[in-house]
Amino acid sequence: MDIKLYYAPITCALAPYISLTEAEAEFEVVPINMRKGQNKSPEYLKLNPKHKVPLLVVDGVPLTESVAIQIWIARTFPEAGLLPDETWQEFKAISMLSWCSSGIHPYLSRINSPSKVCSQESAGDSVRKLAADAVYECFTMVEDNLAGRDYFFDVFTAPDAHFFWCFRRATQFDLDLDGFSNCMAHFHRMQSRPSVKKLLAFEKQVQTDFANAA
Description:
Radius of gyration: 17 Å
Low-confidence stretches: none
């Protein structure tokens, strides 16, 4: 099986990278320099007209959207336990993946780039504040979910990888995260996993390569 993950630094493409690594899958990573518009090149648009990452290509067939990619990884490598075995728990994990992707991620994107959702330059601060308030609300719910727990379920699963990206992205903005001790503990716990250490080292190398190529 030929597996390629199209990836860009800082983006949520780090989550399937972590999951593939946890699954001990053999995969090739294709770095995409979004600042140079490689995600909108004709070659990339043929694979993914949505011009986003992550993109997974398996034996030449592309699969988009983080949740679908994570479910594919979990079902292709069931021994990795990336989703719970029990059916109801599996659906709860997929629900968590979906929430990270569609319920938390969009607000982080608004904080990063208000101009993508509002053309009024003077509204930037307002967009950021409203998005930050929504992120705080989400993190409050996660804080309760993680109370007394190391991970969202009994062991590491795919939702942990995606929420790691969400919280990590939040730490890269001027947000007050002091009230989210459980989320922060989860964040540090994730950083100690070998798969995450590998991802962070790879990300650093890609960023260096991009900078040298500039």
